[in-house]
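for the record, two folds in this file. i put them one after another cuz i was lazy. first one right below, seq on top, structure tokens after. the second one comes after a little note so u can tell where it starts
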Amino acid sequence: MGRMNTNHTSRFQTILKWFVPIAAILALAAWMYISPEGALGKLDAVGYAVCHRIGARSFHIGDRQLPLCARCTGEFYAAGLALIFQIFVGGKRSKLPSRGIIAMLVLFFIAFGIDGSNSYLYLLKSTSPGVLDQIPNLYVPNNILRLFTGSGMGIALAVVLYPIMNQTLWRHLDDRPALEWKSFGVLIGATIMVNLLILIESPIVLYPIAYLSSLGTLALLVIVFSMLWIMIMRQDSAFDHPRQLWFPFLAGLTVALLMILSIDLFRLNLTGTWNGFPGLSG
């Protein structure tokens, strides 16, 4: 009986080793086909799956809108930056940060929620005059606040996700916090500096930010779906070396591309445009 189960498992894994790469190629090919032309067009299609892409709420390179709005640009570039930073300073560290850092992350989350809610209320009132006028805005929203609150949220997501990812992946863990106060301060300082550079709106800064924010979006999706795949396949804490991760991360990339492709097709069919939702501005 045990031998039969082993053979069945081995056959299933062999099928998956063929199926996942083929599915990844097909998903990538379909997405490349429907997405706009050019490198920035492909980045637009990533942002299109997660962001409203309203022009007035986005940064621009000349007349060309970035793939994500100001808030999402901050959120996903900062998440990508924080993940890269933690790979270098955290390694296989698997503990969440100290309570003090977690409290800071909670404040980032609250600021994100307050600014996002206030901004959404302002949008509703500007696009539907007379609706919700009895509810005052806390302040007039702007792209500076969207960028800073978004980047705070991106840091929070990455700082929590990274040690959880390590707990899911590695057989032998470094039982220390993935981020400590000194490295956390360096990360915050670097993010503030990048934000200030973004606000200059120089193409020299905005072009790499367009790539980092879109790839940060994709990276978060791939990590989450890869972790889910590993848990479903009961491979938690089973890896010793990064080279062993190619298959679960390819599976995560496949699911991420399928999700992006599905949302892109649905939204494009609904709105008929790769730009922001028609009728929404301000």
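(here's the note) second protein begins now
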Amino acid sequence: MTATTIRYPAVAGRFYPADPQVLRSEVRSYLSPVPASRPVHALGCIAPHAGYMYSGHVAGAVFSELEIPELCIVMCPNHTGAGQPLAIIGEGAWETPLGDVPIDSALASALKRRFSLLQEDTLAHRNEHAAEVELPFLQIRQPRLRFVPIALGTGQFEILSQLGEAIAEAIAAHGGRILIVASSDMNHYESDAITRVKDQSAIEAILRLDALGLYDVVTQQHVSMCGFGPAVAMLTATKKLGARCAELVKYTTSGDVSGDRDLVVGYAGIIIR
């Protein structure tokens, strides 16, 4: 892959508008005014990645509160199963309807040096939506955005924890502010009542900054949180970087939008600082 390689949008026009003006307007409609005491200098966050009509207001609530630095790491699950289980793209740029977002090759290289299991792989990212849908929010809040995308197709706690440790080391060595975005929805396709109970258990572990606790809740209580891997790695990294607290900014389910309470997906927006 060369520095001129572009990763083109996979879900523009489906998960979010493909027209730049419409997209910009829609994203801004989800971004609330920032209170005087904000924005928050966060170490990490969890934001959902469904179609904007369902989860855009939750993602917007999170990104409204944050001061978005010029450099972010965006970790997402691998929904497609394609490519490597720990897939990074270290060069080039991602195109969105709002313009190209350059990949920070120096940070990507530092991460690969510190964690050899990270593999350069475009296939895992080609049709994956979960990192892509976060970018327009980040672009609106930070026009000079650069980022490193990582797609995770493993659920092994030890590997996820080691990745988090490596991310923390790379950020500490970098010296500047870097936001770690864990892209995840919560429980999938159970009733609204069951989903809220399961999600509450997972959210409580996240608010304790307890990566292993989150892993145990997800695996033992069968919470179908697709991005628990990115969340575990993010929690591990932020804890090592000195995180002291987490805040639940907003929680909803798809039933709040669709009115269907029989089969829902949960969405949580959480800030780690």
